[in-house]
Amino acid sequence: MATRYQYAKDYLSQALYINQSIKSKTAQVESLRELTTSTTAKLTGMPRNPNPNYFDDYINKSLALEAEIAADLAALIDLKAEIIGVIKSVADRECRNLLELRYLSFRTWEMVAIEMFCDVRHVYRLHNKALAEVDAILRER
After folding, report:
1. CA triplet 71, 77, 81: central angle to 5 degrees?
2. Looking at residue 50, what DSSP letter applies?
3. With contact defined as beta carbons under 8 Å apart, do 9 and 3 qualify?
4. Is residue 100 a contact partner of residue 134, using CB atoms and an 8 Å limit?
5. How many CB atoms lie within 10 A of CB 70?
6. What span, in angstroms and rounded, lies between the C-alpha atoms of 52 and 78?
7. Contact 72, 22 (CB under 8 A)
8. Where is pLDDT greater, at 124 or 60?
9. Is the pLDDT higher at 85 or at 45?
10. Phi/psi zone of residue 117: left (φ > 0), alpha (ψ -120 to 50 degrees), beta?
11. Cα separation, 131 vs 110, whole angstroms
12. 123/100 Cα distance (integer angstroms)
């Protein structure tokens, strides 16, 4: 069941999802690099494959992922600039602070509460208020 301000929440959460994707792809690139640098030859009596292309596969996959990361970073920068514009339009300063911490700095609810010197339940209530404001701003567009 969708929440009352699901559109606003989905809009603001886009940056988090792109950021998570970038982290995942970066970890994959690191893993591929590790495979290319840590693979050692095994000495056996079997004839050697004259055309070992697995290193090329690792390198090509790594380069493709790095290109995706670069594109994702560009999209994240553009999206964050757009979200910053929306958040700056929120009238309530406390709501703006919460939105910045949660949707631009990717803090957990507990971290937001600590940084705002309040209880997590207050953060949830404030979040609903902030989403209502964002929803109104997005509908005006």
Report:
1. 145
2. S
3. yes
4. no
5. 11
6. 41
7. yes
8. 124
9. 85
10. left
11. 18
12. 13
Q: What tokens appear for 21 in the block?
A: 């994707």
pLDDT > 90? residue 2:
no
Contacts of 92 (CB under 8 A, 6+ apart): 129, 130, 133
State yes or no: pLDDT of 128 exceeds 70.
Answer: yes
Give residue 15's pLDDT band: very low, low, confident or very high (50, 70, 90): very high
Tokens of 121: 């339940």
Query: Which one-letter amino acid corresponds to residue 56?
Result: D
Task: Measure the CA–CA gap between 110 and 25, rounded to whole angstroms.
Answer: 27
Tell which wins on pLDDT, 51 or 59: 59
C-alpha torsion sign, points 29, 57, 73, 17? negative
Candidates 73, 77, 67, 66; CA nearest to 26 is 66
The count of other CB atoms within 10 Å of the CB of residue 125 is 12
Instruction: Tell which wins on pLDDT, 53 or 87.
Output: 87
Q: How many CB atoms lie within 10 A of CB 130?
A: 26
Q: Rounded to whole angstroms, what are the CA distances from 73 to 44, 93, 101, 110, 120?
A: 45, 28, 19, 27, 31
